[in-house]
Amino acid sequence: MNLFKTVALLGLLSALLVMISYWVIGGTGGLLVGIILAAVTNLGSWYFSDQIALKAYNAQPVTPEQAPGLYTMVQRLCDRANLPLPGIYIVPTQAANAFATGRNPKNAAVAVTEGIINLLPEDELEAVIAHELTHVNNRDTLIQSVAATIAGAISGLAQFASYSMWFGGSRNRNQGGNPIGLLLTIILAPLAATVIQLAISRTREFSADAGAAKLTGNPKALARALQRLDATARQIPIEGNPAFEALLIMNSFSGQTMASLFSTHPSTEARIQALLKLDQQMS
Is 124 marked active-site? Predict the structure, then answer.
């Protein structure tokens, strides 16, 4: 069910990009541009998804000599999950967070911040990394990167439309662009793209939590980690492109401060309750 919902939402997001191009540029030419732009954006985000996200958060690669404990932990979990060892990165920030990215398990990367390494005890850090590896195994990293990139393209197109309306309005009207569609695009397109992107992200988190719990055999460790991360995320938010917040294990607003429609993750309370229920089932 989650897979069907995700495919449907990605299709809707791509259709939105095509429709916006039609309204902004106008006519068949705009429709064609939208289809090409959607195809190029999907292909580009598929191939370069790992590098795009890593650069967004200034993640730095580390060697086994630089982080032996981290490498040992990731290797142990990969052996259990029958996954190839991903690239391992550290983000130089005291914000406590982690994410995974990559177009497939053979081209995946896992990044943790200096802050999360310092904050969490070993069993909780292991649970967080297991969560990220589950995203890799489920191809969630690709899905989220594609969604983030398409949403970014839609926002950029809406910004272009805004400049076009203010500085070239009469020329655009003569060329057949629809002024009402243009205005609606500027106002509603980024909002709609964000809502769809966030809905895609929320469909993936519960399954990644459950996968991590089964991989470590310790659902309570991830529950404790989420509780710690939720408490610190608002105090020290991670800096980076907001379009990629869906990749993070915890964002700055993953609690009560935003309506669920605009959250990249389910509430931390709901995730913890699901993990505690799973712990009872596994006992």
Answer: no
